[in-house]
Amino acid sequence: ATPQVVERFKGRMPFVYLRNEENLGPDANFLQCLHSSHSKYVWLLGDDDLLQTQHLPDLLRLLEEQEPGLVHISPRPDGNPFTVYEDADTLLSEIGIMITFMSANIFLRDDAAALDYRPYEKTNLLQVPMYLTAALKAPRNVMLHLPFYQAGTMAASNGGYNLVRVFVK
Question: What predicted TM-score, i.e. pTM, was given to this entire model?
Answer without folding.
Answer: 0.85
